[in-house]
Write a structure and sequence with these properties.
The chain is of the alpha+beta class. The protein contains three helices and eight strands. Helices cover 11% and strands 28% of the residues. Strands 1, 2, 3, 4, 5, 6, 7 and 8 form an eight-stranded antiparallel β-sheet that branches. The longest helix is centred in the N-terminal third of the chain and has 8 residues. The structure holds a DNA duplex.
Length: 207
DNA sequence: CTTGAGATGTTCT
DNA sequence: GAACATCTCAAGA
């Protein structure tokens, strides 16, 4: 019998992504992000996210209008926005808000729950489990996400987000908020959300 | 654990 | 040119 895992649960309904961006960001914590390729399924529980809302947020991609790169951020909610970061990494966002508005939630870290061997194969043999998906570029590498996944449906067969089964859950996640990481504009907006105390969260220790 | 440098490509000034 | 929603590695405390 197949081992229980959020990877086998049904995708969240499209309506999940029509909530306001900050509500989606908080609600994503504790959900399972799953990825299928020919090599198999890999998945993890979301433990850290950041919200970006171009209408009111100078740090957001899409602030000041669409560009070719940010096109899918203006698209319909419930899709992926994947961009290249610092020339060599990729970052995965969940698009929110109605089409025409640029808003998204950056997935910053996962606690790996499924397909760990696959992740190690992609990330390297010396990488500790804790580090497999700790950071937005790292998790994209672990899940083999690239620009070809930009615009992908998050309720689809190859990439989806689902409720996490009870036996994989730690309990009700204690959610904390803080300023976002690695930005230089709108630095005071407390739009980074993470599971307090999780060792899989990027950045500094969280107490 | 910390700090600091370098890699690397697209976008913006 | 400069900046960038980052990561890895090496060296030090």
């Amino acid at each position: 019998m197949e081992t229980t895992s959020g990877a086998s649960a049904r995708p969240l309904p499209p309506a999940f992504y029509t909530q306001p961006t900050l509500a989606v960001a908080r609600a994503l914590l504790g959900k399972t992000l799953a990825r299928r390729t020919d090599a198999g399924v890999a998945a993890g529980v979301i433990v850290e996210v950041e919200a970006y809302i171009a209408a009111v947020d100078a740090a957001a991609h899409g602030y000041g209008g669409p560009t070719p790169r940010t096109r899918s951020m203006f698209g319909p909610p419930g899709r992926a926005y994947v961009y290249r970061s610092y020339g060599m990494h990729f970052c995965l966002n969940v698009v929110t808000e109605p089409e025409g508005q640029a808003a998204a939630v950056l997935i910053r870290a996962l606690r790996p729950s499924c397909g760990l061997e696959l992740m190690r194969a992609r990330r390297g043999p010396a990488v500790a489990d804790r580090t497999l998906c700790r950071g937005p570029g790292r998790l994209c590498q672990a899940l083999a996400l690239t620009l070809s996944d930009d615009g992908a449906d998050l309720c689809g067969p190859d990439l989806w987000i689902a409720e996490t089964p009870d036996e994989e859950r730690v309990g009700d996640p204690p959610i904390a908020a803080s300023p976002r990481i690695g930005i230089s504009k709108a630095v005071d907006l407390p739009w980074r959300f993470y599971i307090s105390g999780s060792h899989y969260v990027s950045g500094r220790p969280t107490t």
